[in-house]
Amino acid sequence: MGALLVAATTTLLAQASVPASPLAADSYAALEKRCGTPAAVSPASITAMRRARWVPFLHLDQAIARNGIEVVGGMTAATPGCAPESFNLFVFVEGTFAGTLSRAVMTPSRDGEAGAVRITGADTLTVEFARYMPADAECCPSSRERVSFRIEKTGAGPTLVPTETRQLR
Q: What pTM did the predictor assign?
């Protein structure tokens, strides 16, 4: 198993609510006011994200939703143009939080930043993460790693479970 998958497996267990962001209430309010909430995000996801002080955004400016699965970006810092500088991606199933796509908060142009996210089936999705190669400059990871996930739907609620890691380049 790839290092990313092993790390994700230990942290992506069933969670009843969105994990709290590190933002203080006043910092959250200022970021929410400045960067707003995208209309394409469902009301249930917005409510859950707001309670945990994550400012919702569309990952790569795209609504990612299909088969009752929704992937919503949540940021805790943004550029003046509201591009996320510190963020994670949250998966909801029928409005219920299922897990995050990364075990750690992501930063643009860094190792582990999420790129393309695809809902590939009724209970599956993939995400491509930037990965550093030994000769890469600090700014620019040149490799990509795809992690596949399955959503297990149990009585305790949906759980996001990583199933495979594959290096793409």
A: 0.86
